[in-house]
């Protein structure tokens, strides 16, 4: 092989390596965010995110999982009786807040199609939530799933319109 051919071969190899690194970097940027980051980015879960922080559950919900989170929106929290959220966020009520939040989490990744086949699920809190289908909508206890199957790197989020209580 002559010198020009060797240099061209090395240049093409280097170019191929750079291109593959660029593809890997682009793929890395397209990776899904975890459950917490997905909720923060959505913008309609600020009360939930505040509560998760107050209960020291951020690291857990950023963990490997997988988790299924039935995530109440800010509007869902606003439906609670006046003062409920503020009371739950007090440091002395951390255990109660943790129980409420973990009642919204089911271990594993349960997509809507699978949830519709079930009639209940055991939550991380330990209690069972009732799952039903009414008029084509999935209900979790008294909450309606308004958006399903928001995939995250460590599970799935289903948006609900009501805070469910253990």
Outline the structure in words.
- By secondary structure, the protein is α+β, with helices and mostly antiparallel strands.
- 43% of the residues lie in helices and 23% in strands.
- It contains eight helices and seven strands; from the N terminus they run ααααβαααβαβββββ.
- Strand 4 (128-134) and strand 5 (137-140) form a beta hairpin.
- Helix 3 (46-54) crosses helix 7 (94-102).
- The radius of gyration is 22 Å and the shape is globular.
- Mean pLDDT is 84; it is low at 1-29.
Biggest sheet descriptor: 7 strands, mixed
What is the C-alpha radius of gyration, as a whole number of Å? 22 Å
Distance between the termini: 75 Å
Shape: globular
Mean pLDDT across every amino acid position = 84
Poorly predicted runs of 5 or more residues: 1-29
Strand content: 15-25%
Strand order of the largest sheet: 2-1-7-6-5-4-3
Please count the beta strands (DSSP E, at least 2 residues each).
7
Structural class: alpha+beta
- Provide the helix percentage: 40-55%
What string, H for helix and E for strand, traces the elements in order?
HHHHEHHHEHEEEEE
Number of helices: 8
Summarize the SSE layout with pairings:
Elements: H1 3-29, H2 35-42, H3 46-54, H4 58-61, E1 67-72, H5 74-78, H6 84-88, H7 94-102, E2 105-107, H8 112-115, E3 120-122, E4 128-134, E5 137-140, E6 143-152, E7 155-160
Helix pairs in contact: 3-7
Features:
single chain, 166 residues, alpha+beta, seven-stranded mixed β-sheet, 8 helices, 7 strands, 43% helix, 23% strand, globular
Quick overview:
With 166 residues, this protein is α+β, with helices and mostly antiparallel strands. 43% of the residues lie in helices and 23% in strands.
